[in-house]
Amino acid sequence: MFRLIHLKLTYSHMVCMDFHMKTTLNIDDTVMNRLRREAARQGKTMSELVEAALRLLLQPGGRKSKAKLRPLPRFRSGGHLVDIADRDALYDAMEGRR
């Protein structure tokens, strides 16, 4: 019976080799720990999560497109209180002597 199970697993593994490829990645320990916790939380393997993340990243439009930012609002401040290049005038303004 042991031999039969062994053959089944070997056969199954050989069939899946067409669709899966093993590789080695160097992942920061902090990221790896978070991945491990998230996989446990979701009841999935780390490989499943990494593959899903890579699929999202690599699909067309998968990366967040840079949305055009609205321009910052403009307002009038009433002009400059002091020329910041003039150190004495700047200190006078900061200390309320002006």
Mean pLDDT across all amino acids: 77
Separate helix tally: 4
Strand content: under 5%
End-to-end span in angstroms? 96 Å
Which structural class matches the secondary elements? Answer: mainly alpha
**Helicity range:** 40-55%
N-to-C SSE series?
HHHH
Query: What's the gyration radius in Å?
Result: 30 Å
Biggest pleated sheet: none
Tally of strands:
0
Low-confidence stretches: 1-13
Overall shape:
elongated
Give your account of this protein's structure.
The chain is mainly alpha-helical. Helix content is 51%, strand content 0%. The chain contains four helices and no strands. The chain has helices at 2-16, 29-42, 46-58, 87-94. The N and C termini lie far apart (96 Å).
Write the layout of secondary structure elements.
Blueprint: H1 2-16, H2 29-42, H3 46-58, H4 87-94
The gist of it:
The protein is mainly alpha-helical and 98 residues long.
Summarize this structure as a short list of keywords or feature phrases:
single chain; 98 residues; mainly alpha; disordered N terminus
